[in-house]
Amino acid sequence: xxxxxxxxxxxxxxxxxxxxxxxxxxxxxxxxxxxxxxxxxxxxxxxxxxxxxxxxxxxxxxxxxxxxxxxxxxxxxxxxxxxxxxxxxxxxxxxxxxxxxxxxxxxxxxxxxxxxxxxxxxxxxxxxxxxxxxxxxxxxxxxxxxxxxxxxxxxxxxxxxxxxxxxxxxxxxxxxxxxxxxxxxxxxxxxxx
Length: 193
Prior knowledge:
alpha/beta, 32% strand, five-stranded mixed β-sheet, 12 strands
């Protein structure tokens, strides 16, 4: 894993412990990781710990993302960000905006979904999409000039407002599909059943 930084956020240490992975950085208030696992990692001299008070303004995932951006990462993958808490899952999708604004490709990945944000045109290759479905959800109040080609459900210079389910569960029907837009930010979710 030369050239890669692994950043663990608090309880994320438990997943890394099971996989026998030593991170480069650990961030958090350490209110949700077991004392035994935390102690194991504190004995590893190559780890930099970033400790925060439990009463803080940002989540551990947000802090980890800011660290990854600050380390000038060329790409960021966030794992364990969807979990059981919908409030955290939604916030984790929203904080991807910071990476988008820093021009760093950033995705949330789990066994069923790849989630990322776009604010400009892109091409998707059918054989590289994470699952059968591609959903497009506005992060901004509207996405203007949305054109979809190569999808089962196409659009032509459409204004997609926030608060609609129109962009859910589309499918790529050609080798490549194109998303074009004039203004706004889209949440792109590539999903498996």
